[in-house]
């Protein structure tokens, strides 16, 4: 851990705050949710009650999981940041190369992020105790979120 901190400092990187990460995550979640609702707008329009919306969301789980995974995977692999991270001026870097994560690492990070969300963001709560503010999906993906 200390070795990573020393390397980040030597390269001039500052880890992103938990607040910036939370704002970024909220922006991304809202954007992806809007895309899903628009893509399935006719089904959501037919939902009459809150229970109908919950049932529809449950039926669309696979599509939602794929949408979230693709969004995070592609944006992180290509740009090192999602739209939420662009707004908060943060980015994801590989802890070994200090560049954008590889496609493989970005995919692992994206899938793990989805599982973190499914389990009440417990994996994300780890950032509170990690010196680099990393979540479980950052640790598994061998990444860290830094100021851009």
Automatic annotation (TrEMBL):
Membrane as UniProt keyword: yes
Native organism taxonomy: Bacteria, Pseudomonadati, Campylobacterota, Epsilonproteobacteria, Nautiliales
Coarse class of the protein's main subcellular location: membrane
Keywords: Cell membrane, Membrane, Transmembrane, Transmembrane helix
Ranges for domain RDD: 15-141
Superkingdom of origin: Bacteria
Protein localization: Cell membrane
The protein's name: RDD protein
Membrane association type: Multi-pass membrane protein
TM ranges: 21-40, 60-79
Any single Gene Ontology cellular-component annotation: plasma membrane
Pfam families on file: RDD
């Amino acid at each position: 851990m200390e070795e990573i901190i020393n390397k980040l400092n030597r390269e001039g990187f500052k880890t992103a705050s938990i607040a910036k990460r939370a704002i970024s995550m909220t922006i991304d979640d809202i954007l992806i949710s809007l895309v899903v609702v628009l893509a399935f707008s006719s089904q959501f329009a037919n939902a009459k009650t809150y229970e109908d919306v919950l049932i529809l969301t449950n039926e669309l789980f696979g599509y939602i999981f794929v949408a979230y995974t693709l969004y995070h995977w592609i944006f992180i692999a290509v740009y090192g940041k999602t739209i939420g991270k662009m707004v908060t001026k943060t980015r994801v870097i590989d802890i070994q190369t200090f560049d954008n994560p590889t496609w493989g690492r970005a995919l692992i990070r994206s899938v793990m992020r989805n599982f973190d969300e499914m389990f009440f963001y417990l994996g994300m709560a780890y950032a509170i105790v990690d010196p680099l503010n990393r979540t479980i999906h950052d640790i598994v993906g061998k990444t860290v979120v830094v100021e851009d």
